[in-house]
Amino acid sequence: MSHVPLLISDLAVILVAAGAVTLLFKRLKQPVVLGYIVAGLLAGPAIKAMPTVDDVEHIRIWADIGVIFLLFTLGLDFSFKKLMKVGGTAVIGAVTVVLGMMTLGYIAGVSLGWGHMNSLFLGGMLSMSSTTIIFKAFDDMGLRNQRFAGIVFGILVVEDLFAVLLMVLLSTLAVSKHVEGRELLDNVVRLGVFLLFCFVVGIYLIPSFLKKARRFLNDETLLIVSLGLCLGMVIIATKAGFSSALGAFVMGSILAETVQAEHIEHLVKPVKDLFGAIFFVSVGMLIDPALLWEYKLPILILTVAVMAGQIFFASSGILLSGQTIRIAIQSGFALAQIGEFAFIIASLGLSLGVTDHFLYPIVVAVSVITTFFTPYMIRLAEPACKSVERIMPASWMQFFNRNSSGSNTIRQKSDWNKLIKALLRIVGTYTAVTAVLIFAWMRFVSPVITGYIPGIGGGALSLAGILLIIAPMLRAIMMKKNNSKEFRRLWNDSKYNRGPLVSLVVLRIVLCMGLVMLPVARLVNPTLGVGLAVAASVVGVVIFSRRLKKQSILMERRFFTNLTAREMENRRNATISQRFASNMLERDLHLADFEVKQNSPSIGLTLKELNFRQKCNVNIVTIIRGDRRINIPGGEERLYPFDKLVVVGSDDDLSNFRQYVEERYRERQHDNNEPREVNMEQIFIGEGSPLIGRTISESGIRDKAGCLVIGIERGTESIKNPPPSTVIEHGDIVWIVGEYEKVLQLSEGSAE
Asked: Strands 619-625 and 644-649: what pairing?
């Protein structure tokens, strides 16, 4: 008798429970994530009335797999470049929320008597809003095109990065059991170097690899390659002493910079949906209902703290960044929940054995309650805005509105400022990459070489190899920006600038000599004088080598080409320029794009006939039709299926426009619900028929009745697809194709 492995039977229980419960939640119009958690509660060891998963270790295995793919897809949507572009509002808002909620969570945990480590992890869990829930809520409510939604998405992007950093720091604190400034700083630096190295090397190698392999990458192979890269980075991250979740997130963020990012995201979505569901079900499995009842008061306190704290800190941060009171309140109410990262941090605390078991179900319960209330909180933002505007003193309102509407002045940065910033960025990046390459070479490659070739010969060969690899980076550290326009202008403006400029060059040369000395000292162990001579010789060769100069330029060009490839592709396909969009936002206007559905009632009508400007107070500024772009279309321009309309208006106007279009679409759908099948029928042309003596075109069968003549039987002759000039005669049998009702009417009319 065959036996099903326990891991597979557990997976069957998980998916059956998830499928049944989420169908119910879909019908009730509740978030699917809540359904998964309830399914986990039913399928977990807490419920014995049905087949359940009893092995906690199996639950953790499925949870770990789910976290990896969940973080990978979050990374695909993250992008380091997107982080650089979110702007000051998102950064200030996210920092305010994270610091404020971590402090509030820690104070709440200590006040409830849960101890230092539990309270620290609790603060981390309460500091992150749910990206998944907010995206879904905005989609369902048609708010993704509103101005405050863009700010919320920016805050979520910054929070994603904070969450990853927080996981690393909490892991460090959990292992050391205490907070030590130097150790914490070491881990932060180590994490920063790791992220920078992975990003730079990944952007340099992976987009080029995908580009060269493009002709071999169909959907199947691209999916396998992407998942292979994800799991490969998971192994690298764990070997480097970081979590598997960090590795998955990093690889996702690297692939997010490639041209294939959207395609990869589309292919990985079913995998993410599957393992994401498994993760959330596993979250529910670890809940003990008895504990929830026992800790009902702390759950209520933390729920109120999350909702009030997120609203207060998010609104305050966004208001301080220069946004209006309305935008701040709308954003704060949208962020009033905790989600998937709370579960991940809670799982981390359990797996490290530093948090008590009661904390996990409490946080899950708080997340479930706040998630349930998310749509209602978003709807409450509008009345809350009106109440604040009514209560707040007029002088305060005037101050905040003036602060938010003031345009930023263009600050003339000095040449020194530009040069120093550029050098810090270049030297920091290349130094980090060089240091990691040296470390990896000394750890993994050099022992293999010296094992085959012992003695000074193996050490010299290994040294030559690593110096060849890092030579282009060394040249970039020493020579970049030495011929830039800022450097030349400072050199020519004043002789007093020349000393500091020369000092900057010398400092970078000394830094490179130090980097060269690292492998020299380890591999050939010379005296100090010989080591310095070798380092100076290497630096001299690097500076004056034309070949290295060319190689360094090609490497940098390749890196920036890969880095900007997706941006350039998106710019070519963009509905409208970002600069124009920013100018509109400053005037309380907003741009959104809407696609004309294939059966929309607007198809075939001109803009003049549709009159959107008068009906909805919006303007169509661009129509994108395939590769063609029609800017400022005229009133006689007609709409066609799959046209993309770029519409400008305020948030309220765009909402009214969306509602108007959807209502017209539903009316058309309702009208088209009745089945109109096409049938083939035969009509006998009897005596007295009005069709006798008329040609097919004169009969109006096609133009008036909407039917098609496909054949005529005349005696023994059969005429297939008769031409329109064919005359219909008495006794003919005419074969007609058309909708049943129309064919019936035509048949009755022909018999008259």
From this structure: antiparallel
Number of residues in the chain: 752
| Token digits of residue 551 | 């190689």
520 contacts: CB under 8 Å, gap ≥ 6 = 463, 526, 531, 534, 535
Task: Round to whole Å and give the CA distance between 592 and 230.
Answer: 34
Close Cβ partners of 157 (under 8 Å, ≥ 6 residues apart): 78, 82, 83, 86, 90
Class of residue 139 by CB neighbours under 10 A (exposed 0-12, middle 13-18, buried 19+): exposed
Strand partners, 657: none
Sheet holding 733-739, edge to edge: 678-684, 733-739, 708-714, 717-720
Whole-number pLDDT of residue 309: 92
The alpha-helical segments, DSSP class H, found in 480-527 are 485-493, 498-523
Residue 339 has what pLDDT? 73
Buried b (16+ CB within 10 A) or exposed e, 173-203: bbeeeeeeeeeeeebeeebebbbbbbbbebb
The mean per-residue pLDDT over the stretch 438-452 comes to: 84
For residue 123, the one-letter residue type is G
Structure tokens at 380: 């409450």
Give the pLDDT band of residue 228 (cuts 50, 70, 90): very high
Tokens found for residue 602 = 């607007």
**Strands across the sheet containing 644-649:** 590-595, 644-649, 619-625, 628-631
Contact 44, 36 (CB under 8 A): no
How does pLDDT run across 182-227, given as a tens digit for each residue?
665 666 677 777 777 787 788 888 888 888 888 888 888 999 999 9
> Which of 1-15, 141-155, 390-404, 500-514 has the highest mean predicted lDDT (pLDDT)?
500-514
CA-based R_g, the chain, Å: 34
What's the token pair of residue 412?
Answer: 């003339």
Q: What percent of the chain stands above pLDDT 70?
A: 84
